[in-house]
């Protein structure tokens, strides 16, 4: 192995290069440095090191382009190339229809209807939540059911539960229970099923001596509560998040409670741009 000035210059060049770019180098630069270091042993000139580095850089770039092309083909097949193409939101029952063949995968999120409130502040439970990734390459349409909010109840009665939301036979969620005036309990939350993720909705508040809002769903809080002096306040769950429970007022008056919020189904479409 030579020990002349050329080798010293070569080592200096490698060290300087490493010091200047190592902290923020590109993959090509790291390959360049690696090959340059390997070449120091048998070579004694900076020129030889530079030639090897440039050659290796060209190879990596060429192979990288080929790898990217192959990856594009794989992603196009799997349906995730290009990411999200569109989002469809269903607030009432209907049918999801694939817009075109480029959509390969969908992510479905759904929540059931929330339970209504009853009596003396017995609030409704929130609808359950479910989420799933579905391969739709060979599917053109899927039926959707969006759960409704449970009806409120007057003094002395129990409120109704929210109804189920579903996306075909793939995933579903049960509605939140209505408030129970007869035993002064808030409604239980519904629960998701069939999804990659299944979550129970929040439970409603039981008999209380003050006002409280409805149970929260996956998407947010319930309708606001109020004292009976506020009158009918919000009779529907439209002021709560989808699937949230209705709020019961602190009152022995009729028409002071709130229906549960309706559910929702959200379909995220993924595919090739």
Explain briefly what this protein structure is.
About 4% of the residues have low confidence.
Can you put this structure into words, describing what you see?
It is a single chain. With 273 residues, this protein is α+β, with helices and mostly antiparallel strands. It folds into two domains: 5-78, no CATH class; 80-273, no CATH class. It has three helices and ten strands, in the order H-H-H-E-E-E-E-E-E-E-E-E-E. The chain has helices at 5-21, 27-40, 46-78; strands spanning 84-90, 94-97, 103-111, 129-135, 141-145, 165-167, 171-173, 192-193, 197-199, 264-271. The chain has a five-stranded antiparallel sheet with strand order 1-10-3-4-9. Strands 2-5-6-7-8 form a five-stranded antiparallel sheet, with no helix packed on it. It is elongated, with a radius of gyration of 31 Å.
List the helices and strands and how they pair.
Blueprint: H1 5-21, H2 27-40, H3 46-78, E1 84-90, E2 94-97, E3 103-111, E4 129-135, E5 141-145, E6 165-167, E7 171-173, E8 192-193, E9 197-199, E10 264-271
Antiparallel strand pairs: 1-10, 2-5, 3-4, 3-10, 4-9, 5-6, 6-7, 7-8
Helix pairs in contact: 1-2, 2-3
